[in-house]
Task: structure prediction
Amino acid sequence: MTTMTTETTRVHPATSDPAEGLQRHLSLGTTISHTFTMAWRALKKMRRNPEQFMDVTLQPLLFTAMFAYVFGGAISGDVSDYLPSLIPGVLAMGALTACMATGVQLREDMDKGVFDRFRAMPIARIAPLAGPMVADLVRYALAGTLTFAAGIAMGYRPGGGVFGSVAAIALVMVCGWSMAWIFTWVGTWARSASSVQGISMMFLFPLTFLSNAFVPADTLPDWLHAFVNVNPVSHVVSAARSLANDGALSGEVGWSLLTCAIVVAIFAPLSVRSYKRSM
Result:
């Protein structure tokens, strides 16, 4: 009589997921490579879904023309005099509105089960989140370029020249990318894509319109003036104005970049942690 002995292999819960165990040992270079791979996937998805470019193509043109002709005479007395103040404001607003779509798209992918597949793969956990955000830089650049093109067609002549205009667009792209981490975090715990959009708009619109983007801050009531002065969007708009109109690296540029670093330092880890818990 032959006795067969079955050995039981115990697997520690922390290493029961092979992908989870492998991803802990990924180097920085591998993490960056995975991130750009996911960015390429997002770009290919955009190519197959051109409607994702609607908010960064039509909106800058519409808002530039609408705000210029509605507020130009009332605020500056003339549309051409209002454009140096308006264009950087619309530039910042376009990037912030575009980055809101990052959280919406993330929630849609998670609801479709796409991220279940990513979790089973030995890839960096931050790559599925950061990759689409890198791809969205293309959308921010397009929105900024069209904003300046619309302004120039209406008579705007940036005093900072090509360098100042490109620097302003680059600054707003960095700020939009950092702010997208907030909406990514919302997308990891919200219940649906529509709720992500609603929550994001409640957060985004006060920051955008209660700033110096469209009206001078000194024309506002004292209590609102105080809020506008600490609003990070106001610092971004002021920095973009100094770059585009004067070609100057003002202190507002430094404050804007510092704020971006703080936002990423807070919300990037929160997004990754919330993403891992949601899966």
Q: What stands out?
A: The longest helix spans residues 79-112.
